[in-house]
Amino acid sequence: MPGSDPSRRTLGHQRWSDLLFLHWRFDAATVQATLPPGLIVDTFAGDAWVGIIPFAMGRVRPAFLPPVPWLSWFLELNVRTYVRDAQGTPGVWFYSLDCNQPVGVEIGRRVFHLPYQHAHLQARRNQGTIEYFCRRRGKSDPPWAYAWQTSDEGAPAAVGSLAHFLVERYVLFSADARGRLYRGRVSHTPYRIHTPHLGVFTTGPAACAGFTPDGAPASVLAADPVAVSIHPLVRC
Fold first, then answer.
1. Which of 182, 154, 198, 230 is nearest to 23 (CA)?
2. What is the mean pLDDT of each run of 10 residues along the chain (236 residues)?
């Protein structure tokens, strides 16, 4: 309707599951140097954070269509940090989004101006353990590998906690080829999170973004599945 906020319209729906959040601390100035003009690194207790997040996407569809079997289920692996815009809006900045759905990659690049990468990804469950593998197109290195076991019942993150800072983000920022900044919004119920047992992890995706994580992640979280609504981008 005239005068309505386009960022509140529902563009599509999807379901996120098998979410693993691995995060490392970084110097805030180091992360700030990687961000476009208009975004300020967001910190917790003085530290910036860079995360690697593998997960599964399901029932991905436009708001006016049903899901399609060969198109609506796929895997992603994201590298991201946390930012605020000039108005103080908290959100996420993505360095890469590896995906095994070619159509999804092109939509992400063209519609949302996000740095999606074509990749071969696999996920399987082995006696209660989720095993996840990713090899980006053009890379000859061994695939990035993750394995984790989820058993605890999830609960919402406490407001003010590091977990809340890292996972409760409902805005993404992106930039087009001309450097114009955009803001997108997602909607879902608060994550129900817990601490999984992490068996295998790889820092390769962060290294491709120019970061060298030191040792094991400082924060390891997993989340129950959530149903998500996607809203249109707007110019910042």
1. 198
2. 58 97 98 98 98 97 89 96 97 98 95 97 94 94 95 91 98 96 97 97 97 96 97 94
Nearest Cα to 76, choosing from 108, 53, 93, 109? 53
Domains of the chain: 13-167+190-224 (2.40.400.10)
Backbone phi, psi, residue 104, to 5°: -60, -40
Residues making up the chain, counted from first to last = 236
Cα 116 to chain centroid, rounded: 11
Pairing, β 219-223 against β 193-194 = antiparallel
pTM of the predicted structure, to 2 decimals: 0.94
Contact 231, 8 (CB under 8 A): yes
Q: How many CA atoms lie within 13 A of 210 on its CB side?
A: 11
